[in-house]
Amino acid sequence: MNTEDIIKFENNAGNELHLFRDRLFWQAWERSAFLFSKIFRKYQVHHRFVQKVAQDLVWLGFPKTVLKDVQMTAKQKAFSYEVLDDSHIVIKGIPNIDGFQEWKSGILSSPTADKKKPVTKDAKDSSKKDVKTAEFLLYRLVFDFIIYSSKLVPKIDRDYKFTIGERIVNELVNVGEYIFLYINHRTAIDSTSVIDSLYRIRFDFRLLNELKQVSIDQWMFVNTKIEEILKTIMPESMSLRTHGASKEESSILPSSPGLPGDGFTPLTRSNESLF
Question: Using CA atoms, how far apart are residues 143 and 164, in angstroms rounded to an integer?
Fold first, then answer.
């Protein structure tokens, strides 16, 4: 949906909250962005002047995996959550919340990049090096974990393969796509959503262990990998992010790890974490 159509919805929205899909992500514009920040989750809000509508517009974006939580919150608050089509969701019944214009003015008046305190060349080079290391460590960890899990899930019983197993793989692929877009400078990192996904994956693997579908060694391997990813994805690890990876860098795919039993050395039970 183009910007003009989105603004038409926003101008007639009242207390409705409109969400629009943009490839793998969803966006809320103008007053909908304000309502989303106040009621659901706070994300980084962007702004730009759009020539076609001759306005300064504000918007925020979030990954599609967040929609489940949005729908649940809407239900808890007795809002109407309607999927109009695969690219447009509207949430109705939201009580009046004042302060949109003041909120938007604050966004538009935020300091621009060229007003920030300059940094020395050495500090800038050091920051870029740290960012690159963190980004590609994260990418390798997530990609390897996707390959590992994709090989492991088909080996579990059919009763769980297409329920828990499929859910694990889908969640992991979503995380992988999100990280891939992030290092290619397509979106800002939302560590909260990624961390939530990793905890859901951890829970599902623990469940498979209790159901005797994965061994204790496999569970401990999974738990260790998730811990490594969590340490890398924490906000302080990614706070230096300034630029995405180059096309040459992002095209390098990591090699996949072996499965336990294929040259894999099991961890000791003392390293196991419950959750």
Answer: 20
